[in-house]
Design goal:
Elements (H helix, E strand, L loop, with lengths): L1 H27 L18 E7 L5 E13 L5 E13 L5 E11 L9 E8 L6 E21 L6 H5 L4 E5 L2
Antiparallel strand pairs: 1-2, 2-3, 3-6, 4-5, 4-6, 6-7
Protein name: Secreted protein
Keywords: Signal
Organism: Streptosporangium vulgare
Length: 171
């Protein structure tokens, strides 16, 4: 009888520990202030975003996001999303600042949600690099900021280590 009580207590404690961080994060999350998405009701992340830093504060990125024409026929998606901003290299050394976006979009048949990466790199300390791009049938935008050597694409460590910051999800 005491072993079953002990196991029940451990299971309950484990459940509470796994729920507590999510509850604390939801309680301390601040609403995103900024303009509503054009042509639609306000969506998560529409408006200004950032400033987000790379580990060790070796790079940073900030900007804005505008979506228009949300369509909820099969899978919700914005007809068009425009992402703009600046990426900063905050090191004097050989590394560069990277802003890597993971853009999830709806396919033409409206049944799938594949994603692609869009990367912006800045290797000039003190001079930020501006960027603007658009994506059609946009479902979700995520961002990761990294600091690493200049290359044709971000490293696997940049893409897969750490967590992505969600800038927008179509509702």
């Amino acid at each position: 009888m005491t072993i079953s009580r002990l196991l029940t207590g451990l299971a309950l404690a484990t459940a509470l520990v796994s729920i507590a961080p999510a509850t604390a994060q939801a309680a301390t999350a601040q609403p995103q202030n900024g303009p509503a998405a054009t042509g639609t009701t306000a969506s998560q992340g529409a408006g200004p975003w950032g400033t987000y830093y790379a580990p060790g504060r070796r790079a940073k990125a900030n900007g804005s996001l505008t979506v228009s024409g949300e369509d909820h026929a099969v899978i919700p998606a914005a007809e068009r999303g425009r992402i703009s901003g600046k990426v900063y290299d905050l090191t004097r050394g050989p590394s560069c600042g990277w802003a890597v976006f993971r853009l999830t979009y709806r396919t033409a048949d409206g049944k799938n949600l594949p994603f692609k990466h869009r990367s912006i790199v800045d290797c000039s300390y003190g001079t930020p690099k501006s960027f603007t791009f658009t994506q059609r049938d946009l479902y979700q935008v995520e961002l990761k900021v990294c600091s690493e050597a200049k290359a044709s694409k971000p490293s696997l460590n940049c893409l897969y280590a750490g967590s992505w910051k969600i800038l927008y999800v179509s509702k």
